[in-house]
Amino acid sequence: MTVAPGAQLSLQMHHHRAEHWVVVKGTAKVTCGDRTFLLSENQSTFIPIGQQHRLENPGKIPLDIIEVQSGAYLGEDDIERLEDLYGR
Question: What is the pTM of this model?
Answer without folding.
Answer: 0.89
